[in-house]
Amino acid sequence: MKHLRNLLKPNNRIEDSGNLLRINALEKQADLGAYYYVIERIINRDKHKSIKIEIADGFRIFPNMVAPLSANICFLKDSGISVDIINHHKSLADTSFGHPLRPRHLHSAARIENVVWEFRTPDDVEAIIKPTIDNLYKRVRAESGALLALDYCLSELMDNVLRHSKADCGFICFATQEKGKRIAVCIVDQGIGIKRSFEGTKYKTSSAADAISLAVRKGVTSSKEGAGNGLWTTTEIITDNSGQITLSSSGAAIYYDRRNRKVETKAPVNVPNRKFPGTYLDFQIDFRKVVDFEKLWPGFRAPVDLKIEALENSASEIVIAISELGGTSTRTAGRQARTFAQNIINSSKNTVILDFTDITIISSSYADELVRKLLAINGLERVKVFNTSPTIDVILGNVLNES
């Protein structure tokens, strides 16, 4: 116990003096625990109604640290605590952690990732997920099922916040890593926690860790209308794909490892408010790994890929409208269009049609990046080019003949 208590106390990375809290680094679980410890001391022991948070520059920014920090600061403000952020860390400031963005800011936001988003309604969830997935389709090369898996996990986990946490809102932050080979996601709420969500149900939990272990089982739910498979299915997907998911709630922090069906307890995290301890999920999806839902969930219905379904014509061909993918003048635009098309090809066994309706001209570099390279990878049996103008025909002929 002495070892665990020491993990939760302030260190030279999280310091305090009076009502001033200084963050020198916030990169790992022990830092987050120390942050909560200091916040609790300032509010509950020293009875301060205002807090100054000074943040040094230089440490790395991770979604699983930024999202909980943002959720806690918003909770403090909603509880009547004045929070003054003295921030010298530009990269952290750029995440909008002190004032999370709402979906209405998506059109004006400089970026989608490495930003904390706040969601309050099902419409908010949809408004965040759709542009996120659309953006990733153009930016990352994903194996079959990987982007659908991410879409499904985001929908289930964000919906869980709205249905079970009894918090006014949830928070999400994500970032692509290793040059787009994987994505790290953190979803947080400052609600009643998983253990309290089981109160009044047929399930009895002896501890916070026990409650988390129960919540990831098939068929278990803490709401009357829930089917009880959301957290189980997402846990199955994530652990099979990347093997990395940490769930923290009501002070417990555990890692669920599907490979040996074992729940491993992580260093505990302090709870500044016992009535609303909050929950956060930190996970990764590896875009280099295929997600086979039928193999993963025998006898369980796989999610429908609505993006693929929306692109199908009456002949079950997948039609990609080039006019809807952006410009056609640069190699960068061609690369993004090819990434999108390749992700579609990876997600369907049907023929993919590149439809150039309403496009009169393209650059040679665009044609090279999109058409030539796509055909080189997949062949004419998978990719067809339709509705090209005479000018585009000439450009494509020159590019393909040069190869």
Q: Name the assembly state.
A: single chain
What sort of overall outline do the alpha carbons produce when their principal axes are compared? globular
Mean pLDDT: 88
Enumerate how many helices there are, as a single number: 14
Main β-sheet, in a few words?
A: 7 strands, antiparallel
What is the name of the CATH topology of the largest domain?
Heat Shock Protein 90
Structural class: alpha/beta
Order of helices and strands: HEEHEHEHEHHEEHHHEEEEHHEHEHEH
Number of strands: 14
What is the CATH homologous superfamily assignment of the largest domain?
A: Histidine kinase-like ATPase, C-terminal domain
Helical content (DSSP H or I, runs of 4+) = 25-40%
State the low-pLDDT regions, or none. 1-8
CATH class of the largest domain: Alpha Beta
